Amino acid sequence: MRTDQIKLFQGTNDSELLIRKLIGSSYDGITITDPDGRTIWYNDSFLRMSGLLPEQLDNFTVHELIENGGLENSASAESIARRETVTMAVTYPTGIEALISATPVFDNDGQLIYTIGNVRDLTELNKLKQQLDETFALTKSYRKTLQEVQLKSVDGNQIIYRSSSMEKIVSLAHKFSVVDTPILITGESGVGKDVLANYIHFISDRKGQGPVVKINCGAIPEHLLESELFGYEAGSFTGAGRQGKVGLFEVAHNGTIFLDEVGEMPLSLQVKLLGVLQDMKIQRVGGTKQIPIDVRIIAATNANLEKMIKEKNFREDLYFRLNVLSINIPPLRERPEDVFVLLVHFLDLFNEKHHMKRSFSPSAIDQLLSYHWPGNIRELKNLVERLMIMSDEDVIDDSLVPTKIRNTETEVYDKEDSTPIYDKTLKDLISDYEKKILDDYLKKYRPMKRCAEILGIDLTTLARKKKRHKL
């Protein structure tokens, strides 16, 4: 830089020399420009980051440097024009990414006399951020891998999933498993509520202390359900055994009791269950002794308990006792990305069980993936086993797939232009099929962010495809 340009430091004393040295040795780039945009002072760090030469800074204003391509843009030029502090991010020809702040300096009369620019090198910070993002992604991958290992090592109790919604549910299960608070699992029939209950027990500390005991409250007659749950004393009723009987709550001591279809429990028993939840003691039918128990209670239902409360078919106080922690499992139609991994899982399961080597043909897989599975995982599991047994070949052909599933395939003719598909190019067919899928999913899943998650694509990608297909 030319010494005749350093007007602001003329007549320097020791303090000013110290300030010059301090600024000159700063890791941040520092520039000072006059009201015309001429650079009158700069340090070595600015030269290093910007890649500009001293001759360029000494002989051209920031406006001229922008015009001749020496600078892409200038915070100092913007600050001079707007007479206010300006901050912007730039990438210099050196490849260095920087954050520039230019601050105007005014005299006592309000006239602009200098603009001070501060240039912060973001390259290292961005590298650190990238490394941090990669670390987070790796941690997430390790966590998912660890969960998969845990799933496969929990005495055969597995949760097979690929969707983000099920990933959140598995994460909740791990969080809930460390406490003994009651859990209410809701969801349609066949979504795997019992599998999740087993999983929670087997990843908890209770696994090695007691069993997991399941009872379907809707499958046992009302007059027998109480004695099944709480047991009975000898001779307490006609037909009672001479030795009496231990109830399932006692069997589940130190473990977990799973009350499936709890919405089917009679009101008279709901009162007794509420008492057990409050006191952790049971009383056998025909007995007078209070028996202390230590159990984890997990209840499940596919019924709308809140509606049942309004209709006086379920006790509100029991609902609040059971619903301290809650998990809702979405139906399979809302997480279609889980269908394929479940197909593969059940295929492997039944191949091992029946000593087979079955597989699905691509066309059969297409049909199964396009089905909406109203019976959820239970329907899928039963169908896979049936198809494997019915098939005479190792490759299961689409001809064995039930008619109700085959009928969900795309029609041969396009509904808009009635053009036979064999008159269209592959690109057009793929585009038409994509449009149909997007149209169906956008109508079914709201908001768009949820729809994008279900489809497994970014929100911006979904928005672009929606615009392209004019949906």
TrEMBL record:
Per the database record, which ranges form the PAS domain?
15-57
Which Gene3D superfamilies does this UniProt record tie to the protein? 1.10.8.60, Homeodomain-like (1.10.10.60), P-loop containing nucleotide triphosphate hydrolases (3.40.50.300), PAS domain (3.30.450.20)
Which SMART domains does the record associate with it?
A: AAA (SM00382), PAS (SM00091)
Listed A to Z, the keywords are: Aromatic hydrocarbons catabolism, ATP-binding, DNA-binding, Nucleotide-binding, Transcription, Transcription regulation
Q: For the Sigma-54 factor interaction domain, which residue ranges apply?
A: 159-389
Enumerate the PROSITE patterns for this protein.
Answer: PAC, PAS, SIGMA54_INTERACT_1, SIGMA54_INTERACT_2, SIGMA54_INTERACT_3, SIGMA54_INTERACT_4
Domain PAC positions: 84-134
Ranges that cross the membrane: none
This protein's source sits in the domain of life called Bacteria
Q: Spell out the SUPFAM superfamilies in the cross-references.
A: Homeodomain-like, P-loop containing nucleoside triphosphate hydrolases, PYP-like sensor domain (PAS domain)
Record keywords: ATP-binding included? yes
Is DNA-binding tagged as a keyword?
yes
List the protein's name: HTH-type transcriptional regulatory protein TyrR
Q: Which organism is it from?
A: Rossellomorea pakistanensis
